[in-house]
Amino acid sequence: MMDFSGGAYGGGKAGGAFDPIGFAMRPTVILRAVCWLFAIIVFGCISSEGWREENGKEYCIINRDTNACNYAVGIGVIAFLASMGFIAGEYLFEQMSSVKTRKHYVLGDLAFSALWTFLYFIGFCYLTNAWGKADDPPNGEGVNNVQASIVFSFFSIFTWAGCAYFAYLRFKAGVDPSFSSTYESDPNATTQYSAYPVGGGGDSEQFQQAPFGGQQQQQQPAGDFSATTY
């Protein structure tokens, strides 16, 4: 099991050396690669052998249900692109210096993976039900492809559920307390300075007069010319 403790959401500080072998051996990367492969099988099998032409019009061999073929191709193509995007995201994750950016990535990963787990489950049930009602294609053409698409739709439920689980572990790990607070500057934070000390009581009275104001404010006694020199 992959350990996501330490750092920020399972990743250390940015700027570290990249290890290609270690990156390729990560469970999250391996699982994404499996999702990518399964997605190719799901939409590739339907695209190549899922359609037949009759009277100048194409129809889906899965009970002539166009939506069934389009659904399998649609979720497969999007899963194919998303898997490549998340593999690239795994590489960039260690380069993200912002804790907030990492959090948003992990939440996006969790939401998308959970959604595609559900969509593959719906797709598996939908394709299985439609294929059970379909007539056998002429000469059995496309049967293996449709069955492969259904089987790997089922497998994809667990691979995407695994991706969602890893994303949940990352989110649950959060930010380690030992992670430097200076690693990310919070634009909403304001620097607090201590107020200028104001003396109380007698200490404040010494600043009530100007340093040289005392002599100027004193009045010389009338008629006293003893201090006058000529």
Keywords, separated by commas or semicolons:
elongated, 230 residues, 2 strands, disordered C terminus, two-stranded antiparallel ribbon, mainly alpha
Q: Helical stretch count?
A: 6
Name the strands of the widest sheet in spatial order: 1-2
Q: Please tell me what the overall shape is.
A: elongated
- Which secondary-structure class do the elements indicate? mainly alpha
Annotation, overall tally of beta strands? 2
Average of the residue pLDDT scores: 79
What Rg is obtained from the alpha carbons, in whole angstroms? Answer: 36 Å
Ranges with pLDDT <50 over ≥5 residues? 180-196, 200-208, 213-219, 223-230
Task: Tell me the major beta sheet.
Answer: 2 strands, antiparallel
**Straight-line distance between termini:** 102 Å
Q: How much helical structure, as a percent, in the residues?
A: 55-70%
Strand content is under 5%
Query: What is the chain-wise order of helices and strands?
Result: HHEEHHHH
